[in-house]
Amino acid sequence: MSTTIERPDIDEACVYCGSRIFDHDPICVRDCTDDCGSPTYFCNFACLSTYVDENGLMTGDACEWSPDENDCC
Question: How far apart are CA 28 and CA 8, in angstroms?
């Protein structure tokens, strides 16, 4: 699972709000369970968090843990 790191274009827009990512605190997200496709850029954690919430991306994507279980995930 190798990826190539390239700096995005100076005018790259946030996938959520459309702001220029370098006007803020940019975040690059890449889905490496699907051949590490093209990166998606967000201008800050607020846009990333809202995007994840609105698209239900957390549902079913986390391990389940119970304090009664011996094995941790």
Answer: 9
